[in-house]
Amino acid sequence: MKLAIEEGLSQLEITRHCQLSLGEKLLRGYMDNPGFNGMEVVATKLPLSMPLISPDGQVTDFQLVGAADLLLKDQLGRLFIKLPAML
Question: How far apart are CA 79 and CA 71, in angstroms?
Answer without folding.
Answer: 7
